[in-house]
Amino acid sequence: MIKTIFFTVLTVAFFYIVWINNIFAPHEKYEMPPEHKKIAMDYKYAKEGRELFIQNCASCHSVRYDALYLTQVQANPMLASLQEKYGKVLPRDVYEAVFMNELNALKEAFGKVPPDLSTIYLVKGPEYLYNFILEPQKVLPGTTMPPVMTGRPEETAKIIAYLRSVSEPPPEEKAKRNIMGVVTIGYFIVMGILIWLWRDRILKKMGLH
Amino acid sequence: MIGRWFNERAKLSELWRSQMVDYKVPKNLTFPYAFGIMALVAFLIQIISGIFLVMYYQPNIHTAFDSANYTIMKEVPFMWLIRNIHAAGANFFLAVVYLHIFTGIYYNAYKKPRELTWIVGFFIYFVLLMTALSGYLLPWGQLSYWGMVVTTEIPTSIDSAPIIGKLKIGETISIWMKGGYELGQITLGRFFGLHIWLLPLILLGLVAFHFYLIRAHGITSPDGREIDKKKEGVPFHPYITLKEGAYLMGYLAVFFFFVFFYMKHFLPADNYDPADPFKTPAHIAPEWYLLAFYTMFRSIPDKFLGFVVFNLALILLLILPFLDFSPLRSARNRPLFFVMFLVLVISSMALTILGTMPPTPTNALLGLIFTLGFLSFFISMPIISILEWRWYKAKGGSRND
Amino acid sequence: MEASRRDLLGVAVGGLGVLGAIGALYPIVKVLSPSQASLAGAKVEVDVSQIPDLQVRVVSWKGKPVFVVKLPQDFQWNGKRVNGQNTKLLQGQDAYALVAVCTHLGCVPLWKPQGEGEFNYPVFHCPCHGGFYSPWGDNIAGPPPRPLYVPPQKREGNKLVIGEEGFVKELT
Questions:
Q1: CATH code for residues A34-169
Q2: How high is the ipTM of this complex?
């Protein structure tokens, strides 16, 4: 009994540390004022955030998964016919080949092509993005990202809300997935209990136990 | 009706009865005995989810990332679920295999006549690690790419050896693995092929052989005795099938909790960053299931020696049935073995956790200590065996028992 | 075997098992079903004012090639089968769509506004086995057994909308 408890606790503790919360290897935490965090986590600001993104960020950054291309590329008449052929979200090699000039111009200006931001929310999280966009040099010294949103934390939060909407499913879909999860887990728990009880009955009938 | 027609011709109920009901097993099997069947179910889950992923994933370095993170995660209905299942499933598969291995060690399931079962099992473990490594490359994210860069660099530690290092065998192996000087389309293509059919097929063959060997010898009892099947055995069905069936439901409940609500560790944030050959991520380390070997490798200052040690760890694991030649079976009856088993378990866990921590001098020292702890289990086996033989012979036992 | 709780439990387990299997099947069916994007290809719009007279443009509809034919205002045709099935259906239209798949063995015919072979007026000519069609797709010579298929289509100003019910209600 003691051995069972000991090994069970040890195993659970190990997987807790490795999979859920590694108390030995904490990651850097960034701060974000709660009122702005609320804006960033609120789906309804995504639309406004998209407009702000187009105004402030799209001259250098694309969001390909939302078919949001660089301003210079949006103005290019080739884009429409490409999208007719390949769909709204262009394959990356097609995009980079056709608009090589626009991308190279950015590379000359900044040293490297500013990355596409389709999944940046998942990579960095809202707090990092908030701090980075408002003060790039403080978070990544030596970066060529200019501080385009200085003094506009609320709008930055809305842009983050937009980036979140591209990376994560909308609240209705999230709710559906949560329900799916609860039903699936509940199903297995119920099945497990039923099978156990059924087995008990069968064994009792067979005279085993 | 159709069932009866089919049954008369395929003789399924006779097959069922002879294989499942007449097959007798010990009555006192504990919970960890279920890890084996959980591993099989985990394997099946990977195959089925993999079948669907292969329909939409594109093994081309320009489109791989988008096929995984746009087409699969956002475009095709329910493919996000299948990808979550596959990613969480890989981790659960390896977790359950590790638990199964430690269970086998604890109950001495590798002893005569089951040494071959253990050896086949070792190769299943090894091929599984290859499968996991090759699969991780496919999404072509930053961790995928740089993790594979690190992995293909490991053979170059052979070149740090005195004398034979001059032959540059390590570098040759490294270039051969990658298909060139750098990771590119050729690398992705070959790992894709390995991951989706060749390695799974080999795994299937090994697992089938493993199951055959298990059935050939029957299941070991937790207290080490071979049971008299007629007198003390219970029918496999329904005694074990339904018990492990219920445990499986519990496993699936835990599994799907992670699939739906906690994918953070199984789809790590940094891998949502597309692979960039010019930008190394700040923290690059293997996945948890390889971290123990990684820590062993890292803790030893000499590269070649580190390479030797972590290969030694694998080899010692393989030859365990021959290192432990004691007449006694099961940790329940062997206090010395039990203590060393604890050392093994704690060392393995500590080595894994150390792998997640930065390589400070303190951590390197701790890594060295726990590496020695891990190895000491295997080294102590012959010593303990000799001591236990002496004790056994004094109690009147002989080599012919 | 008495009607015991064991049977009820057995039925419960079996029933839930079936439910679970169906539940697992639902996402699998959805994963394999055609995507929104591909189903959107069921409707194609063509601006016929951009097509010069007596010329034919080829577009793709539901995975098949389709001819969009533009006829001049006072087009007279001297060929056979003036009372063909397609001619009657497409009467009075200056622009219409025909499925560009030869009804003989599936090749894509060629538009020959200057005529071809024995015909010195506009025809469709299939190079594979020598089938001929009138500009409205009626078969006039060679192996084709029936006229070219006509997809459902309607006209909205300068736009010909292929795939929607209009002057042609359904695929012929």
A1: 1.10.760.10
A2: 0.93
